[in-house]
């Protein structure tokens, strides 16, 4: 593996400032330790939050379009360093280079969106029931925003939250996954460069990052100065965050587990469907919250789809994600590998026929697997759980209503899709009696969402929305203003109260 200190150096980060502790930074490509970092203590976390709070007090007075200028400069840094940052994402998370770069592109896209948004933080004007009165809404920044992100999208998830949070006038404290601290350090360095170019109205401490494990996250979530916590990760983590936020009545945006399904109907374009299935099920080695995990195939086309799918699976290039041509990189660690094997054993015990799923020796201690295709007799217990690995369960269905019923019968509700050329089926799938997910696609797989839409899902996925559309509103507080420009004081609801 290349020299990590110098790669960080090209991104403007001085790694020596962080080194010397007992937090090992490991690359899943070979399993080797890249460096040892110092974890932040609870006192460090409190100190960063206090700095962010001070920065917020100044930043909220900077006009929003000017705040957008900072994000525009940051996007310039990202454009200039896309290749190096994308490579670092690959080294730290194990996703293939194409996807590492794609993740940085996603950051650039949300920055562009946020720059435009900085001139569009509109409120409504509302007709007042009283003469000589006007009502309106004003949107104000919230304060310090805590962002907790996962290893699988180590930089993009932060940017969906942070780019919006900054243009909305907030400061941000970021707790990245302890599995991917280096990308966070690099992003902070690029942000610092943008801050320097921006000038003196960018307050010190506007963007903070924490290095460490659960204790750091807990200290962030429990701190009374953090107005909103946006957390991406497992349902177990999200439940703990939700409870901690509820205790102090703070806001939370939760983007948790997915168990995403696809229905392939008889009229589907199978060529397209196969490409979509393979990308969404094995891309990022099945470690996206939007990864395809459950496939419902209509019985009349099952026997023509399955052999083609098996063929595509058998030819997948599994290997070092830094090498061109590789489509499937390693799992993040041994724990992920064990969880995958356990799920496959469980599926087998429930009557499943497992194709693939075995370990492939590629490089050192990396956990590489052949993606698994599992033919199931029905939607059994194992299919109700999200296993963060490339396992695709396949079930036959007869009637669409039945497939939708099964599709919605799991606790998670993030992303979903249908492949059909029948407009009625497509519309039913997107209607109130169709998919119960936050994302419902037609003739596109469930993963790889664009930043322009609101991203998130229902049920155990947590209900939060990030990224595009009007998700920005979650990072602001709404004030309703009623203005009296008359010389009388009429009361609402026709109340007379003469004194
Ligand atoms: C995640 O896995 O946490 O829609 C996010 C997608 C990506 C984001 C995934 N844009 O697959």
Description of the structure:
By secondary structure, the chain is an alpha/beta fold. It folds into two domains: 4-256 and 462-481, 3-Layer(aba) Sandwich (Aldehyde Dehydrogenase, Chain A, domain 1); 260-442, Aldehyde Dehydrogenase, Chain A, domain 2, CATH 3.40.309.10. Helix content is 38%, strand content 21%. The chain is built from 14 helices and 23 strands. The chain has helices at residues 4-10, 42-59, 64-80, 82-93, 97-117, 156-167, 181-198, 214-222, 235-247, 270-282, 299-314, 334-349, 400-407, 423-430; strands at 19-26, 33-37, 125-126, 133-141, 144-148, 171-175, 207-209, 226-232, 251-255, 260-264, 292-298, 353-355, 359-360, 368-369, 372-375, 391-397, 412-413, 415-419, 439-442, 454-455, 458-459, 466-467, 476-484. A seven-stranded mixed beta sheet has the order 12-15-16-11-10-18-19, with helices on both faces. α9 (235-247) links the parallel β8 (226-232) and β9. α4 (82-93) crosses α5 (97-117). The termini are far apart. The mean pLDDT is 97. The protein binds 2-aminohexanedioic acid (UN1). 2-aminohexanedioic acid binds next to loops. Residues 22-478 form the Aldehyde dehydrogenase domain. Keywords: NAD, Oxidoreductase. It comes from Noviherbaspirillum cavernae.
